[in-house]
């Protein structure tokens, strides 16, 4: 097998640890439920939670013991609660049954099948804008390798602890700890993140909407230290508020300063600053990894540079994103999203320069080989999908571990179109894709499978008639 084939296989393997594809079976009904127009939740019993604390499961339910619900509201509450539990990514399967005690009172039984929560995984990934950019040149020096230890559902409280030791193109050491609930009401949480990054090669500017890079033969071209703490407030099932404080220290070689004096701003080779941010997210989707029905909205504001430890940076960004998903008819689905980033101060260091094309989720499909730098960004995506193969499950008899031998799979055929605009007021005449409307469209085939791994294959055409076949590993919208 070629090096490229081995790399692709390794990338697919590395995706298997963190997501989950599932289908929602309708909650069972029978004629006895209509003997009374209401249902009173007499008791709730949970089965199968060997690790997960019971209060973590109860937190995701849209009903509580002793609640009185009308029949249709009762069924809808059970179905939504099942979606909420699956979206925690704590369980492979969730089953909610109910039994009539009398015409009004019901007994709820929630059965969960827990996932494997500890993942000592190898890191084997491409350090590039997307897989297609790397595949064009197949530069094997841009490979990261190392080890990742993740403990999901740490202490059975939905906490997540992760340790990263990465080498290769980017050397990275990182410790991250997320605690979703720190109080009895389970509305407040904390997060901590510490990281160190270094690399010999650095993107110092763009030319013809492609990145220009400088490689140091002896010293680190760039080093970064960062520390972050955040507070989360989840006042409702679908709503989360986050406020965070972050410290960043960056250092670059004088050679990089010579190539781009504005990389850190003001011709500096070192920069440090504090950032304060606030984010609000409303997430009511049937699946967070590959949604088909529901809506999503997030808005955030971030102030880079608080003037406390230095005056190196003074930048404020405001961003929002809205997504909507519809089931049009039977196996046809429609998805649409709008995303925008606005910058209050155009005189920003290149390090904090925004743009399209730097990630698979913030790009115009068919522009995979380009980046478009700028300060203000707008992006709209639309896709119609047909469920070619319905969500189904299978069992791998040769896999002895129960938590790994069951998996879901499905296929979706789609038509899509993307429209984007990047406003660049700093002025890089050598990058002519800014300040003009850009668009692309194409045909896609999405494969959703084991632990919610998504493999997207797309054929797309851009504004200039350039076409290509591209591969991605996240949901399209």
Number of helices: 5
Strand content: over 45%
Strand order of the biggest β-sheet: 5-6-7-8-9-12-13-14-15-16-17-20-21-22-23-24
In one word, what is the shape? globular
Question: What does this entry look like structurally?
Answer:
It contains 5 helices and 24 strands. The chain has a 16-stranded antiparallel sheet. Strands 2-1-4-3 form a 4-stranded mixed sheet, covered by helices on one side. 10% of the residues lie in helices and 53% in strands. Strand 10 (201-207) and strand 11 form a beta hairpin. The radius of gyration is 24 Å and the shape is globular. The protein has helices at residues 3-15, 54-59, 71-87, 131-137, 254-259; strands at 38-47, 68-70, 91-100, 105-114, 118-126, 143-154, 159-168, 170-179, 188-199, 201-207, 210-215, 222-233, 239-252, 270-285, 294-304, 315-329, 332-343, 354-356, 372-374, 376-395, 406-423, 438-449, 453-462, 467-472. The protein has 477 residues and is mostly beta strands.
